[in-house]
Structures are given as C-alpha cells and as structure tokens.
Design goal:
The protein is an alpha/beta fold and 749 residues long. Helix content is 42%, strand content 20%.
Length: 749
C-alpha cells in the first residue's frame, strides 16, 4: 500500500482495502495460505473437468474519489463463471470453522464488493458469491452476495479516511519537532561520522556503520532516521536487534530525542512468549475476533495501549485479561498506529515470523528506514532462521497416526532415504527428500487434521516448512543426520536472501563494532576517536595455555591471577570465560581463597529478563565481588551497567567456538580460495575474537572511563590470533611471569 499525503492518493490492494481500519493482520499464517492456494488449484481443476465457462485470477483496477481522497484499488478476483443469464464473481475462502458459517466477515464481503463494483461496467448482471471451504474436511458453503457493492465500498473508504486523517495529522505534528542529538556537545569523531553516513545514504540505499562500542552509534542512527521521518522522506522507522537487551537500550536512547509526550508513537513488539497470560481465553488463535472486538467495535482506542509515546505491554496484558482477548494479536493490531517499531531481527528475517509484517495492511518497506543494531550477529541469526530439522521418531509416529486416515503420503519414502544415509547427505539422497517433501506439501489440503494428534500435525507442518527451505535458491544448505537420528538441514549461507530483504527498504543502516560483509550494494562508514583508543591498557599474559586439552593444568594459576587482580583493584574486577564449565572449574579452586566472587546466572534456565540481569550486575558491583561472566552471553555483550565501574578485567582464553559440522563445512568451502589455516581463521578465530571485543567494549562508555585488560593465554600473541588482536593493540605489554604482571598492576596504581 502506498499513501501520497500531498496528492491525497491511496494505492491499495483489494485485500488491504477490505481490512478497513488498517489494524491487525489481513491474512492467516503462511501454512494456512499454503492450504488456501492448494484449494484454489483444486477448484480450478474441477472447473476444467466440468467444462464450465469460467476464468480465474481476473485482474481489476478500480479508481474513485471519496471525501477529497483518490483511491486506486488493484487485485485479482478468484473466479468468474459465465452463465446463461448472468456472470458470477466468486471469492474463495478457506476456513477451519464448521460450515455453514453463521456470521460472514465484513472484510470478506467488502473484498467481494470491490470486485463487483469494478466489473459493473464491463459485465451485465454481475452477481457475487463467497465460497467457503473447510480446510480439514473439504466441506463447502456458498454465500450469495445480496448487498449494494458501491455503498459497501464507500462506507469502508470512509472508515479508512478516518485513519488517514489521524495518520496525516501525526506526520504534520512530527514535521514540526526537533530531533537534534541530545548532547551538549558532540564527542570527537561524531560530527564527521554523521556527515559521512548522510553522504553514504544519499548515494546508496544501505550504509554499513562500523565504530567502537561507546562511540554513540545508536544516537547517531536515531538522529538520521528521525530527521528523515520529520522531513516526510519516510513513513516509518524499524529498529531491529538480535537481543531484547539491545532493544531496551535503543528505547532508552530514543527517549532522549522525543520532546513531544505523544508523538511519534513507538511500539516495541515483544516475543509471543512474553505476552502469555495464565487465562486460556486470552491466548486465542482467532486474531480476526480480537481485531474486531478491540477496534471495529470501538471498545478500545489504540491510545489505551500506549503510555504517552511508548507502547505498554502491561496495559496490553491488563486489558487482554479483562476482556478475554489475545495480548499478542492486540500488539500486532497496534503496529499500524506507530511510526517507530522496535523488535527482534526474526520479525523481518525469519520465515516463521516475517509473515507478521508481510500480512499487515499498513506495511510498506519502500517508505521505511531500517536500522539493524548488533549487525555482526545478522548472518548467523538469518542462517539459524533458515535451518530446520526432522526427527525420524516423529516421522514414524506420523506414519502410525496416518494409518487411521485415508491419506497416503510419502512418509515411507522419507524413512527409506534416511535409513540408508551416512552422516552427510548428497546428490540423489537430497533430491529424493526434496521430492517427498514436495509431495506431502502439495497434498496437505487433503489431510483431515481432526484425525491426527497434535504432534503429528506439527510434523506435517514442519515438512511443509522444510519443503519451503529446500526450494529456496537464495540459501545454501548442509544436509546431515546427527547422533540422535535427527535430519538436520542447516543453512550455511543466507547472504543472498538477506540482500533480497534489505533491498526492499527506502534506506538502511547496519551498525556494529565489527560489521558483516554484504552481497548487496552498500557503502561502509568507519569511525573512531582517540579517547576510546586511550581508555584501555592491554597486557598479554603468556604464562598459561587455555586450550581445551591444556587448560586443566593451569586452573590454579588462573585462580592466583584472579586473586592478584582483586588485591590491586580500586573498583571492580570482571573475569570473562569462554564457558560455564571453565568458570566453575576455576571457581572450585578459588572458593578456598579470600576472594569473594559470583558467577553470572543462567539466563535461559531461569528465564531472566534484561532488567533482572542488570540488577544482578548492579548488586555484584555494589558488593565489590569479582564477577565471572561468559563471553558471548547477554551479560557480557548487552547489559550496559559496567562502564566506568571496572578497572581490571581478565579475559581467560581466546573463546573459540566448539568445532561443529556447520563451521567445518564453511571452512572447507573457503579452502577453494584460502589455505586451511586462513579458512579456519576466517570462520573460527574471527568469531572468538569478536566475542572478546564485544565484551571489553562494555567496560568503557564515556571519555572519563579507564580500564586495564589482561589477555590470559599464550595463544593471544601467536598466529592466527595475533592477526586479529595484537595488531589492533600494538601498545600492549607482554608478560611471561607473575612478577612482571604484578609490576603492570602496580604501574596502574
């Protein structure tokens, strides 16, 4: 959908137009859409066999003016049947409801009304029909349209215009706001970075912004995007982060820019799990009923779910509980009213979640400014989202479950292929699985899901997802069987898919201290400042070897080193480990010393929120205990409370990721252009060093902050690690005994 405020033109699809108030989702899940498509094909085949005179997917373009707005509606009518005395326009709808339906949805009637009004001049005596098909049983119900098509379309246009007036007024108010950087004066390097980014975006759609942690990247990105929103160059800003803690920091930065209490509206779309209520009636699947109840019936104003400019999950859950609605669907319904969205990367890049944006009636990437924070995680997150698995035991259960139905699918074929496979699948094996996946997916509409248990239904939908993955030409997949008899389909390269998505946007900034390579055209902007370079002192401690095979012989030396740092620290000491197991091994020795220490809590196991993680660190800092953190965790990469409070930090080991088939395959692929050592460095070493850089970047957040970092392993000054670390920290001191390390700590004092 496109809106031209100056010319008062609305270009919209018939489906979007029928949504009315531009709130909520206009279609069901991607899998329901797949079944719907299959039923449409079945109706076409029946029509051909019956030799009736009909056409399918008839294009329409309806232009009309209403209350000073000019509408251009496009779309495709499902079917036109030419009978003796009239032409029948049929709109086909799939449903999981029992038929006949007692109450026909207004959105369905309005969509059909658009087609009927469009065909009015071309076809004489044109009539309409809604044909409902139950997706589970195939039962059908035909509803004859007996309304005034033109009147219904204009009534719907009136409700849309009310929304457009609100939309127009909001943008007028935003255009008079000031979104200057909320600093008394710019820090060194920031003004140059802003100018460089603006120039990059004037010449390219995508700018890659690389600058150290604490440089002020977030504020700069907000400033540039908000200026474009103010000037009317864009309609919306979407900020994506790979971690919820990153979202909270982005919102905190944004609040400093917004002087008006009510605009722009900012909506943080949290994960579905965060919306769950104990009351079952408030966790429905029927999003249409929630949308109608909340907005069409005017029980709520969307303002109910905001506290001034910012969305309130508390208000959403409170009202959802009171009225028996689904909190998650309320959140999605609110998105259309917000000029700024803040959410997880998955909402744009994961096939299982991005359908939410795609199905919104008021979503136009061409008028959207995209900001991706923590962009160093982009490729790995997208690869993970485009990966899948299929358990052989689930397939066997599905086969048993299907024995009690009349549906014959290709389950046996898949099982036979997997039974004959080695660890890695190639050539004909993959081709056979793709064929069976396609056969199952193409026949889902014939399955009576009422006859299947929940797990079997999930397995079928999972196969449909794997079919979609395996036919995507923009991703490279690794097919393998793991030790637990699970088929793993791992994405090892999704850069083309990522590029395809990024190209849709008006402008985009991808930012990180270590930005990724991109296939799509872009311009890179790098920035730094001397105060950041001078904030750190580096020491390479070569007395120990922290490799997995040798670290056990140095646990006591590591424990003594921690004691030494605790003795010389004037503030706080943080120790970064590569794993929980490593941290706990050293902790067992340290528990008999005089050093008080604490190990970070397990976020996933305890389901800790960003706030709870921050509170844990604040308490530890106030107690002046030594804090053990794990590299790569949200504690070491996302929680922003350590700045200026840590004067000594110990990095224990080079933090290499564990050897795994996915990374090993990437190494082999790179060996076509690099030698084995260079390929290993590119895949494994870079990831480990990146975790370290992200962690130590949290220790300095302002010019007055100073800290000393001890890299605790002899490998830090060896190839290939020296290529990524020592060159950057060329002023670092190297120590080979305890006395030299103690002198370095005394020098600090």
């Amino acid at each position: 959908m496109e809106i031209d405020l100056a010319k008062k033109i609305v270009k919209v699809s018939a489906r979007e137009f029928a949504g009315g108030s531009f709130s909520g989702r206009s279609s069901a899940s991607i899998w329901r859409a797949l079944i719907g498509k299959q039923w449409h094909s079945a109706i076409r085949e029946e029509s051909i066999l019956s030799k009736e005179k009909s056409e399918f997917e008839i294009p329409i373009l309806k232009k009309f003016s209403h209350k000073s707005w000019n509408f251009e509606i496009t779309g495709f009518a499902d079917q036109m049947i030419f009978l003796d005395n009239f032409s029948l326009v049929r709109e086909i709808k799939t449903t999981d409801q029992e038929l006949p339906i007692n109450e026909i949805k207004k959105t369905h009637l309005t969509q059909l009304a658009v087609y009927l009004w469009s065909f009015e001049e071309e076809y004489v005596n044109c009539q309409g029909e809604l044909l409902y098909i139950n997706i589970y049983t195939g039962k059908r119900f035909a509803y004859k349209f007996n309304h005034n098509a033109k009147k219904m379309v204009l009534e719907n246009a009136t409700s849309i215009i009310e929304f457009l007036h609100s939309y127009e007024n909001a943008h007028k108010l935003i255009s008079h706001q000031n979104f200057d950087l909320p600093y008394e004066s710019l820090r060194e390097g920031q003004e140059i970075a802003i100018g460089s980014l603006k120039n990059a975006l004037s010449e390219n759609k995508i700018a890659v912004f690389e600058a150290p942690t604490a440089f002020g990247k977030s504020a700069i990105a907000w400033h540039i995007a908000l200026e474009k929103l103010k000037n009317g160059e864009i309609e919306r800003i979407v900020w994506l982060s790979s971690k919820s803690s990153g979202q909270q920091q982005a919102l905190a930065e944004l609040k400093a820019f917004i002087k008006n209490e009510n605009l722009p509206k900012v909506f943080q779309l949290r994960n579905r799990s965060e919306h769950i209520l104990g009351d079952s009636k408030s966790n429905c699947i029927d999003c249409d009923s929630c949308e109608k109840f909340c907005f069409s019936e005017n029980i709520f104003s969307y303002e109910t779910f905001f506290e001034k400019s910012f969305s309130s999950l508390f208000n959403i859950k409170k009202n959802a509980f009171e009225f028996g609605l689904c909190p998650y669907e309320i959140s999605i319904s609110c998105l259309s009213y917000a000029q700024i969205w803040v959410c997880d990367l998955n909402y744009l890049f994961a096939p299982s979640a991005k359908n939410i944006f795609d199905s919104l009636e008021f979503w136009n990437p061409k008028k959207t400014f995209l900001i991706i924070d923590e962009a160093h995680n982009l490729h790995s997150r997208v690869e993970s989202a485009y990966s899948g698995e299929l358990s052989i035991s689930d397939l066997q259960s599905l086969k048993v479950n299907l024995l009690f139905s009349k549906n014959l699918l290709a389950i046996d074929g898949i099982l036979k292929v997997l039974d004959s496979c080695e660890t890695f699948l190639t050539g004909n094996k993959i081709s056979s699985l793709k064929k069976f996946f396609a056969q199952i997916s193409e026949n889902l509409f014939k399955v009576n899901f009422d006859e299947l248990n929940l797990e079997s239904s999930k397995t079928l939908w999972n196969i449909a997802f794997l079919n979609k993955l395996s036919t995507n030409k923009n991703i490279n997949l690794l097919w393998r069987i793991d030790d637990f008899n699970v088929l793993k389909i791992d994405c090892i390269d999704a850069e083309k898919e990522t590029a395809k998505i990024l190209k849709k946007f008006n402008k985009a900034i991808l930012m990180s201290a270590n930005t990724p390579e991109l296939e799509t055209p872009h311009q890179k902007v790098s920035a730094t400042s001397s105060w950041l370079e001078n904030a750190y002192e580096y020491v390479f401690d070569t007395r120990v070897n922290t490799s997995y095979k040798k670290r056990g012989g140095f646990f006591e030396e590591t424990a003594k080193t921690i004691e030494m740092l605790a003795e010389h620290s004037k503030k706080n000491v943080v120790v970064f480990f590569s794993s929980y197991a490593y941290a706990k091994s050293v902790a067992q020795i340290l528990q008999y010393s005089k050093v008080d220490f604490v190990i970070q809590e397990n976020v996933k196991k305890k389901n800790l929120s960003y706030q709870e993680q921050g509170e844990f660190l604040e308490k530890a800092l106030q107690s002046h205990v030594v804090i053990f953190l794990i590299l790569g965790s949200s504690y070491s990469e996302s929680i922003d409370v350590l700045g200026g409070k840590v004067d000594l930090a110990l990095v224990v080991g080079v933090a290499l990721p564990e050897l795994n088939p996915i990374s090993d395959t990437k190494v082999l692929n790179l060996c076509d252009s690099l030698n084995r050592e260079e390929a290993f460095e590119e895949i494994y070493v870079k990831e480990g060093i990146l975790k370290i850089k992200q962690a130590i970047g949290r220790l300095v957040r302002a010019p007055e902050h100073k800290t000393k970092i001890i890299f605790h392993c002899e490998r830090f000054i060896e190839k290939p690690y020296v290529n990524h670390l020592y060159k950057e920290f060329s002023k670092a001191k190297i120590v080979s005994n305890s006395d030299d390390l103690k002198k370095c700590l005394i020098d600090k004092e």
